[in-house]
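#lab-general

N.A. 3:47 PM
ok so I finally got the sequence cleaned up, no stray characters, all 320 residues accounted for. can someone with queue access submit it? mine expired

B.Y. 3:52 PM
send it over

N.A. 3:53 PM
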Amino acid sequence: MADKVSKPSVGKKLLRDQRVLLAIVIAIIIVVISVINPNFISLGNIVAIFQQICVLGILTMAMSILLISGGIDLSIGNIMVVCGVVMYVVLNNGMPVAVAVLAGLITGMACGLLNGAIIAKSKCIPLVITLGTSKMFYGIALTVSGGRIMNFGGAFNGLKTKVLEVFSPMLLVLLVMVLLAYVMMSYTKFGRRVVALGGNEKNAFLSGINVTRYKMAVYAISGLFCAVASIVFVARIDSITSNAGTNYETNALAAAIIGGVTFDGGKGTIGGAFLGCLLMGVISNAMNILGVDTNVQTIITGVIIVGAVVLSNINNIKKK
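B.Y. 4:20 PM
back already:
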């Protein structure tokens, strides 16, 4: 008789799940920091953490969808800024907020579609293409803004007005975008085809998937998420500058990878990516609570990013 292959227990399966591990790590950090400083676990601080990750959380969803599809976009931070600049210009010309929001959403989709079209048609490496378009979008924002701070005069204050002294609508926007990404990637034919595209582009093509069209669609959707992130950013800060998107692409990439999304494509979950973003938010808030020097925080963030990339490639290292 052939030896029976032992199946891993339920406990081992759970511990192999990146989402479970992240939830445990987050819980441990919360307990430890709360013992050191009880203010960390206060309702106000918990809400503050979610408010701080609103923009990053939405951009992480965009980056995760792209990574799962086999792509990447280093221009998402500057797409967000261009959308904000467009909204400012529209408002400054006497148009209502609704028109400005629509203009921002269209701009985001257009920027994403441009990225997708160039990548799909040229078959060039997405990292290099989006590095170039990132500079282009930054240049556009810098030219239009003239390098000055663009103030919105409270036009989007409704998104940060607290309900019951705690909850603000921008948190609802974050949750809606996370839920939208989750449903799209987990329960729709589009999402399944995006996963297939990221897993093996050649097989996806042979199975009848229009690779070019799907790549363009994924980048357009990513651009839409960037536009929504821009709306939330403006609501929080009430202004925008040409360099406001700096580091958002690397932080979103790190959050997605920490959450189990890999560079290989076709792997990872939206839930894991969100937990990765939440972990970064908790760590950042904890360092502020503990009074860690800003420069040291930058070093720690860099270590987290490097560690996340190494961990995402650990399976490839083992194979070799």
